[in-house]
Write a structure and sequence with these properties.
Shape: globular
Number of strands: 16
Structural class: alpha/beta
Distance between the termini: 45 Å
Number of helices: 11
Order of helices and strands: EEEEEEEHEHEHEHHEHEHEHHHHEEE
Helix content: 10-25%
Radius of gyration: 20 Å
């Protein structure tokens, strides 16, 4: 049935419509439709559908992944990218059992390690040269270009051991050959962040950009911070990837205070952080609001920016398929944690209410912490 969306406050829509009409086929119409059902948004905000650039949803295929619906529409997210849960040896399972059946729009960064995150951090996907098959990786990309959006590599000592930059360089080469971006997980060295910056190009993605790990954070030195800023200005994407160990309030506060905003806000949601400190996208966004990032910038970082990286349209233009998140901004007094157990008080929280995909309207809500800090 055709829909009319009414009584909303537009955010990141590119215009300020009073009403949005959606045809029977789920496309956005240029004007009112006779007989359409009215969806009253009750004065809430309406934005393009929230898009999470970094999740782990190969449930059962890895030991850390949540089910797609746990990261999706039930919490306000209509599009997402699995960030390297699968490599070339097991990607077909991720596609067949997760990507294709899901109502959310899902893309995937293919792990350069053939086995992906089957036994995450217990069995590294990058033990030695046998861990990578670049020919099969490139063939997998070609066979699944409609859903593979980039190459993923985890570049930190706990993954690479003494292997250093070699797998990172192989991943970058593969991404270049495939004409796709590289998403690189940064953490504790080796390799050093300076070495990683040397090979990145516009469009490549630094995920966990505001982590607070020793000898690896962007705030380690003023010179390193300026290098990161220059790369961001040149088009390298700064992605949050909150996770269980990869987001620090002080690093984020410093960056925001210096005018260095993240391009994309993502959760890195998986089984080890869904019950804290991450919980969901709404809480992750609320943390940035509390740290001083303006609401419109927060919403852009979870809508237009990540959607563009995944090759998705805005979801809000006439003639395109409708894709919206309806949410409120509620008063709060909540203490929340970063990945190093530092605390922050939230005066306001974003609370998803509905998602609209085509003519499908689904309720959404926050995944609230089960206990107070």
């Amino acid at each position: 049935m055709a829909l009319h969306l009414t009584n909303f406050q537009p955010l990141s829509l590119g215009s300020k419509p009073d009403m949005i009409a959606i045809d029977d086929d789920g496309t956005i119409a240029p004007g009112a439709i006779k007989g359409a059902q009215t969806i009253d948004c009750e004065g809430c905000y309406l934005s393009p559908g929230w898009c999470d650039l970094h999740v782990h949803i190969w449930h059962g295929g890895t030991n850390i992944s949540v089910r797609a619906h746990q990261a999706g529409r039930a919490t306000g997210v209509t599009a997402m990218a699995d960030a390297g849960s699968a490599g070339e040896a097991n990607f077909i399972g991720l596609r067949e059992y997760v990507i294709d059946p899901s109502e959310e729009t899902i893309r995937a960064f293919l792990n350069i390690g053939s086995i992906g995150l089957v036994a995450c951090n217990r069995v590294s996907e990058l033990i030695d040269m046998r861990s990578i098959n670049i020919d099969k990786t490139l063939a997998t990309i070609e066979n699944h270009r409609d859903v593979i959006c980039g190459v993923k590599v985890r570049a930190s000592a706990v993954i690479l051991g003494g292997w250093g930059m070699t797998p990172v360089k192989i991943a970058k080469h593969g991404a270049r050959v495939a004409n796709l971006p590289l998403m690189i997980h940064v953490g504790e060295p080796p390799p050093l962040l300076d070495e990683i910056l040397d090979i990145l190009e516009p469009g490549d993605i630094i995920t966990h950009c505001f982590h607070g790990k020793t000898a690896g954070a962007i705030t380690d030195t003023a010179a390193l911070f300026e290098r990161v800023r220059q790369h961001a200005q040149s088009g390298v994407v700064l992605d949050i990837g909150h996770g269980v160990a990869s987001f620090n309030f002080e690093v984020a506060r410093h960056a925001l205070g210096e005018g260095l905003f993240p391009d994309t806000i993502s959760t890195d949601l998986h089984l080890r952080n869904i019950d804290g400190p991450v919980y969901d996208m709404a809480l992750t966004l609320s943390k940035f609001l509390a740290l001083g990032m303006p609401l419109d910038a927060v919403i852009t970082a979870v809508t237009r920016r990540p959607r563009a990286i995944l090759g998705l349209d805005s979801g809000v233009a006439a003639g395109g398929r409708a894709d919206f998140t309806v949410f409120s901004l509620d008063d709060a007094n909540e203490q929340v944690l970063d990945s190093q157990a530092n605390t922050l008080t939230l005066d306001h929280v974003l609370a998803p209410r509905l998602t609209i995909m085509g003519t499908s309207v689904c309720p959404a809500e926050r995944r609230k912490p089960q206990k107070t800090i």
